[in-house]
Design a protein that fits this description.
Structural class: alpha+beta
Shape: globular
CATH architecture of the largest domain: 2-Layer Sandwich
Radius of gyration: 19 Å
Helix content: 25-40%
Bound molecules: flavin-adenine dinucleotide
CATH class of the largest domain: Alpha Beta
Order of helices and strands: EEEEEHHHHHEEEEEHEEEEHH
Distance between the termini: 52 Å
């Protein structure tokens, strides 16, 4: 849809992406969320499509994903064979409910910054213990654990003008075994409950990440294989009732119920050697 209050679309200089920042400015990535609903506060869009940031960089430390990396680029990426969690990257992209147009335009960073409970890139970052690099208007930068980035339905820790630059997936997370469980009302529907478990094959740490069921992702981390009781107690403690999301895709009670079922299935699967 049109955004009639927008008067300009500018391409900021990459030596100083914040140059001439004004009230009403917003970063434009794929634009699929920005052009999907009225946003009368918008005045100018700062187009990120010309940054030239390399989309995907493999190194000994893991994988660096530019915020501007297209979803389709991540889908086509061939991870090294020894990354046990490598196939999860492609699977994450396939969890999108998206039309042809949205699929081909949206970016990894745009999905993370949209910060919706069903955000597949939000889950990917949280489940793989990612670190996000954020650039600020005063030209400082900071690194933030993915699990701390999203704070609620469509809210996150970004301050006005802040720019998500990149997503770092550490090698240690990419080497972990993983499994996932997801529920949606229809086969290709938006996720209403989505859990991913990973296990470090050396330390045996198990990490279960809950998303879509809750308004922001939640980590359950265990040193070694937990019992059913350990998982239940952690869920009771870390997810109060008001953290479960309520929308037409599912009631909080339904989401809570399946979260416990899926967490137990993941525990059983990852505990087996
Ligand atoms: C038909 C349809 C289906 C959808 N299905 C899903 C779904 O299944 N799951 C889901 O999670 N979402 C879904 N969405 C919403 C979805 O989150 C976005 O459409 C998409 O992921 C946003 O990516 P984008 O690159 O187009 O971002 P944009 O629309 O360009 O930007 C989204 C927001 O993030 C900000 N932003 C973008 N990049 C940065 C950056 N690098 N730094 C700081 N801020 C930034 C923008 O200013 C804007 O506020 C759907 C939307 C549509 C229209």
């Amino acid at each position: 849809m049109d955004q009639p209050t927008v008067t300009d679309v500018i391409v900021p200089p990459m030596v100083d992406p914040f140059h001439d920042w004004r009230d009403g400015d917003t970063w434009l990535a794929g634009g699929t969320l920005l052009f999907s609903a009225p946003m009368p506060h918008l005045r100018r869009l700062r187009d990120l499509s010309q940054t030239g940031w390399p989309s995907l960089t493999v190194s000994a430390a893991g994988l660096e994903i530019a915020a501007t990396c297209g979803i389709t680029e991540l889908h086509e990426f061939k991870p090294p064979d020894h990354w046990r969690a490598g196939p999860f990257l492609r699977q994450s992209v396939e969890e999108y409910l998206a039309s042809f147009k949205v699929w081909n335009r949206q970016t990894v960073g745009g999905n993370i910054c949209a910060s919706l409970p069903a955000g597949p890139m939000v889950m990917m970052g949280a489940a793989l213990d990612a670190e996000y690099k954020i650039l600020a208007l005063d030209k400082s930068s900071r690194l933030v654990p993915a699990i701390d980035f999203v704070t609620g339905d469509n809210t996150n820790i970004l301050q006005p003008g802040e720019l998500l630059r990149s997503i770092h997936l550490p090698l240690s997370a990419l080497l972990r075994r993983y499994t996932l469980r997801r529920f949606a009302l229809t086969k290709h529907g938006r996720s209403s409950i989505y859990l991913v478990g990973t296990r470090d094959t050396e330390s045996n740490e198990i990490l279960i990440t809950v998303s879509a069921a809750t308004i922001h992702p939640v980590h359950l981390r265990f040193n070694g294989a937990p019992s059913s009781e350990d998982v239940r107690v952690a869920l009771d403690r870390l997810i109060p009732d008001d953290l479960y999301f309520d929308d037409p895709n599912g009631t909080p009670a339904h989401r809570r119920h399946l979260t416990y079922v899926f967490a137990e299935q993941i525990r059983t699967e990852l505990s087996a050697s």
